[in-house]
Amino acid sequence: MQNEPLAFRMRPRNLNEVVGQQHIIGETTALYKMIENGHVPSMLLYGEPGIGKTSIAFAIAGSSKLPFYSLNATHAGKKDVEQIVGEARLAGKVILFLDEIHRFNKLQQDTLLPHVENGSIILIGATTENPFHDVNPAIRSRCGEILQLKRLTLDDLVKLLANALKNEDRGLGKHPIEISEEQLKKIALSANGDARKALTLLESIYFASDEVDGVTIVKDHIIEHLAQRIGVYGDKAGTHFYNLLSALQKSVRGSDTNAALYYLAHLLETGDLIAVCRRLLVMAYEDIGLANPEVGAHVFAATESAKRLGLPEARIPLATAVVEMCLSEKSNSAYSALDAAIKAINEGKTGDIPLHLRDGHYAGAKALGHVGYKYPHDTPIGTFGGWVDQQYLPDNLIGQEFYKPVISGEEKKLAAIYDRLKSFKKDI
Length: 428
Fold this sequence. Notes:
CATH class of the largest domain: Alpha Beta
Number of domains: 4
Distance between the termini: 90 Å
Radius of gyration: 31 Å
CATH superfamily of the largest domain: P-loop containing nucleotide triphosphate hydrolases
Largest sheet: 5 strands, parallel
Number of strands: 10
Number of helices: 19
């Protein structure tokens, strides 16, 4: 067993050994009480790597005493599934832990699902991807619980590390180690909520440290060297990456500069510069919009500069763009107005284009009645430019308003012009 990684050896053997995730598996939860009373439901465990999905599955198996089998959907075949179905027939009921369940193919499902439905196989699926996006509905419908795990807290990780240092059978308890509470906190902080990373880092630190008179002495510089980038997690095509993009946009929209820079930093550490630039450009028009039209040009310049510079220098113009967007006035009126127009069209609110607006640049247009258009530039109105009162919307949409100005920043001026032009229409 000592040849196995520390993170593997320290997996909880029952529910009472689980560290963290108390909102899911704590003693007061319904799931804990069900399992203690001998009932294990099929479930999906959803969350980032290293935060306890596999550990919870093993702990449930240990507490329930039912036969337990583990498969990874990335390489499990139909024969693997059939073998577990056969075991279920013999045992009456088994637990199957299926990691990366979102990769389960239809053939495997067809073999397994009837047995999950009749209860002979209790399915515990684990996924890092949003189960509502990436797990087949047939699987979801047979799992009564869809449980979203959280990253472990600093206190959770310190407790986990302390347990590993004390445990003589499975941890490092047989090896005298000199390590301070502050150093444990540094390791926990570097792991960024990931139990596997925390234990892996602790094990690496142990083997990288010098022994003096039979005691392993942990030095700060060893922790700092091994902890580099250990907290970074993000699959460019995965749910967490899109959650980071979403959090970045919502932080900018909410004018929280510090949160926005935090999510930008995390996104840039994943290395997908193009996706970040695309999202920032969208945000400039979606969330800042007419309140500060110059921001669109500024963000475009920043993202183009970032793409030309590449990482790590790209972070400099992007940081400038994010701070400017956070602190800018905001408006979503323009794209909201367009969405309202699209909605109206999709609801069948359409009509004929007025004849005077139709193309009149060909012989015969006059015979079709495409006449009467008034050229606005021929009628100046103050310092605004040309304007003339004439119908533009189809007859059945006259009076329909899609645009609703937001009184913010530069749009205050545009809103005043919009209202003034409406008043002219009434007067003429």
